[in-house]
Amino acid sequence: MEYQSHIDALCRHLEIGPFRDALEMAGCESDADTWRAIVEEAGRLSEEVVAPVDRVMDRQGARLVDGRVVTAEGHLAAWQAYAQGGWIGLPLPEERGGMGLPLVLQTACEELINRASPAFAMLATPNRTAAQLLAEAGPDELASEWVPRLLAGEWGGTICISEPDAGSDVGRIRTRAVADGCGGWRITGEKCWISFGDHDLTARIGHFMLARSGSESGVRGLSLFLVPDRDENGLRNGVFVRRIEEKLGLHGSPTCAMGFEDARGYLIGVEGRGLQTLFHMMLRMRLSCGPQGIGVATGAFESGLRYSRERRQGGRPDEPPVPIAEHVDVQRMLLQMAGRIETARGVSLACAAALDLVACAPDAEARAHWSSVAQFLLPLVKDGAARLAFDVSSMALQVFGGAGYTREWPVEQRLRDARVFAVFEGTTGMQATDLVHRRIWREEGEGLARFLAMVRADMCDDEPSRLLAGSIASLERVTQEMDGLRDTPRDADAGAVAYLDLCAMVASGWIALRILHRAGDDGVARRMKSAAACFLAELPIHSAAAADLACLGAERLEDFGQLFD
């Protein structure tokens, strides 16, 4: 089984995860044998059902035919197999049609699906997160109708925020919602960048949409609506596909520009608090960016690792050429890739486990604790995994040499697919400035403080701990400097991305330390430990550079205007 080493690493991370004991104490289902069986089955489905259609989806893409999107050959059969297996509703309660399993297990399985095809997974994630949103905030009648069908894959879901003149700047949304006097709403406007905005995989599609329902400007006038593409009788509900975007990658995932013309919609949550209501869906979608990036990175890395053993070049001219895996530069690249993947995987699963603990915490104090930890980790997971996917795919292409630049090998597609990961669900810069302004300034660094206390609890008097301790000291020093820049936010924003990187490095170093201390001594552990040791060996140098950049200030940007002279 090609995915076996990936499955083994995931299962080991689930066994030694930072919050495993806390999950057991909170009563979360955590039987190791059950979890492994589920991950194994996810790997089988990913490798045997989803992966074979991915190259077809990339080659054929999606087409707009008579106003409807037609997906690639084999996509429907793969979607039905995935949906019928119950994978969409893994973490939702059984009474809602889910399996009632932890989010951390869902996150592990998502890695494997994304390795097989990130384009395919782009439909599964909004289905699940939309179902969770409806179960928590939707009217009972609407939730009873939609949640089971979303989880069964019979109906689809999208998230509709962006407009041509209002991307991340949601306060400028112009789509209007007007009450129809019969308990419903009529929505008119244009939305863009809608993944699976239309397709032939489900009988009905529900658009979870922000629209302006009041006279207030900014986000205060926005409400959240569910707008079906068709009514109960299958007739068009004023929802139209304007076009499918031609993209660099993710060709199997149709990105649509959508028009809504007096479409009937249903209010979700409180009128005027649409962004706050939608946040629950957005949070889980951002978490899913973690397994998305890590899954793609793992596929690219393992392709490069196999190729390095098969491709022979170099060595003594009077002897047969050697596998390129014997060249030190190739070893460097592969170990660096492995180190970043294993540590990112641990951070991603830790964040998911923290969100599980928010849900099952026994009291308000415990919920506040785990929520602050999860909110601190979330931008590290989202952006870290996004850039990881592109960086590892690029480095894997380097291992392949010129062959990697051709379509004969899979890494060029992974490179194309991965580039957008750091753009959607909040760009790198947005994640970084939010971390500084919200988590460090507004919340006084509470999540960081709780996180570092957990990290220190895992440290001891050994060399790996000392390597990590130096990076922690750098992070604390830079955090103090960032805190002192509240009156000069331009200086803080100029260093925000480097500060985000520094936080991610410390979190990844923590996972590397836990791997070295707890992974065991079998073949799986040896692979993981070699990757972790390489990561920790380079951590002080990388973290020192990130710390310096974070504190450099905005003076270096003062001549920016001359670029336009």
TrEMBL record:
Residues 272-435 form the Acyl-CoA dehydrogenase/oxidase C-terminal domain. Belongs to the acyl-CoA dehydrogenase family. Residues 36-154 form the Acyl-CoA dehydrogenase/oxidase N-terminal domain. This is Acyl-CoA dehydrogenase. Its cofactor is FAD. The keyword Oxidoreductase applies. It holds the Pfam family Acyl-CoA_dh_N. InterPro entries: Acyl-CoA_Oxase/DH_mid-dom, Acyl-CoA_Oxase/DH_mid-dom_sf, AcylCo_DH-like_C, AcylCo_DH/oxidase_C, AcylCoA_DH/ox_N, AcylCoA_DH/ox_N_sf, AcylCoA_DH/oxidase_NM_dom_sf, Diverse_Acyl-CoA_DH. It comes from Novosphingobium mathurense. Residues 159-262 form the Acyl-CoA oxidase/dehydrogenase middle domain. SUPFAM superfamilies: Acyl-CoA dehydrogenase C-terminal domain-like, Acyl-CoA dehydrogenase NM domain-like. Keywords: FAD, Flavoprotein, Oxidoreductase. GO terms for molecular function: flavin adenine dinucleotide binding; oxidoreductase activity, acting on the CH-CH group of donors. The keyword Calcium does not apply.
